[in-house]
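Review this fold:
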Amino acid sequence: MTAADDEGATGSQSVLERIAAVLEVLGWAEGMTLAQISRRTNIPRSSVHRILQQMVDIHWVERVDLKYRLGVGVRELGHRTMAQSRVRRSTVPKMYQVRDATGFNVHFGVLVGGDSINLETIWGSRAVTSFGGSRQPAHATSAGKMLLACRMERGEDLGLPELVPVTKYTITSEQVLVRELQKIRKEEAAIAREECYLNTASVSVPIGPMKNATHALSVSGPADLVRPHEVVRHLRAAASAAWTEATSVVPRRRRPGHLRSTG
């Protein structure tokens, strides 16, 4: 295939689509040669080679002799996705228990870059009517600060943009935030009082050990009604139960009629 043919193909299919196509065919084989991948994806060999080289560099693909196969990076990503799905499924029922025990809104959140995102919210009887959007600056929310502290616990870069004020109580000093996160690491609980919304307070705990946690469970409610020491025990009990359930190994069921030989 000529360079002109390659360029024409590139124009009709995005780089992301090509990467997805290569990963798709590798997912169904133990190993494939460059020619096989090019033929199965209908992508020029030169383009496939460039894509494969880049994915080998980031461990998404492994090269063994003349064949390519999915790498450890993709497998780890798959395991993480499955784990996140399990954590979410195991946490949601416990959120209702926390809501019933406290009357406050209950949130299941994650950290994406410098933002805290609520993936699930269960509204309580003592809900704050002004509590809005699901995506907020992490440094202004209890869930965001909790998960930033988890990042710090793992020695990861916090990845924060400029600490812009959301209310007059929002932390805007990096030094103050670092001290706050160090305190959260010790207490394994985070509090935000009117830092994201006026007249609103929230409390958050990690779901799982801080070195593993990528999700947070939190409550929010009127600032004059939220008592952190009272709600945190409900949050911790729910988070602990959810993590135990999500990480427990379910034994495989033996197929009907399949009996172990007794010799």
